[in-house]
Amino acid sequence: MYLPLFFLVTSLGSALGTPLAPRAAKSTSSTSYKLNTIYTSANFFSSFTFFSDPDPTSGHVVYQTRDKASQLSLAGMLPDIDQQPIYLATEHSQPAPDGRPSIRVQSTASWTHGLFVFDIAHMPTGCGTWPALWLLGSGAAWPTYGEIDIVEGVNDQIGNSMTMHTSAGCAVSNSSTLFTGSLATPNCDVNAANQGKNAGCSIADTNPASFGPAFNKNGGGVYAVQWTSEAVTIWFFPPRSTSKTAIPSDLQSALASTSAQSSKLLNPSSWPTPQARFAGKGCDLDTHVKNQSIIINTSLCGDWAGATWEQSSCAKKASTCDEFVTANPTAFKDAFWAIRSIQVWQIGS
Where does the record locate the signal sequence feature (predicted)? Predict the structure, then answer.
């Protein structure tokens, strides 16, 4: 029998806390952003559409319509948890020989440039999972207008993978002074030579708490993405951290905003060194990245989680990823997103 949403709330209450206040970061520039759009559980489901076509990444997953997701208690909010976060889950009560029910949603709005802030309390974890929070260019065949993967990983992966996918003609600088992550692949072209197909330019966060069980155990965290003509920059701020990675004071204050009418300003140029920065003389970002909408999904197996199954510790649990996902529903009770808010900021006066 499927566990109803209120049961999950009582089980998860102690794990989903509020980020702690940090010391202010040193200011280096006067560039400021004003809040343009805010999504919470109050307006999220009227601002995002449910994708229910077959998974384009060949996952052992069945994406649900809004009505079906509601019937299965896979989408909603966690009403008794701090800030009533948006809830997007994976079915975890029944065997799933034809693919496990899950969620993929996409914002109806799209943007070119901006500062995107994601306050996340919990992300999907577990063998077979492939959670992703990303931006996708619309209006042309992929990857003409680019893709920015903000949070992504599979199976038992430690640390977050941040990636940009583009058409030919975009490579990034590998300078270690620009970001704290580890550059895995430098060419954003999905067909670049000497890289795996569709690899793009990818930077790995070296902080284990940036993804998976360690992220959830640490109380979640905040991801921020600044996208300009010069660079796509990604920060991760865990709620329990050293002063070097603490949430900047202006961002900490902004997280309390409940309306796009807020008078608060953000100045990301005063923040610490980011985890990832995609930029360089070899990439005209305004040509390769535009018209981006927000997508949140949890795929299972498929072209990444399934293809790397045998190289992970998960292979001890089943001979294939599909077999594991089919036969082990309770393994996916933690395969859910709990998102306090999503904010989109634009350059203001």
Answer: 1-17
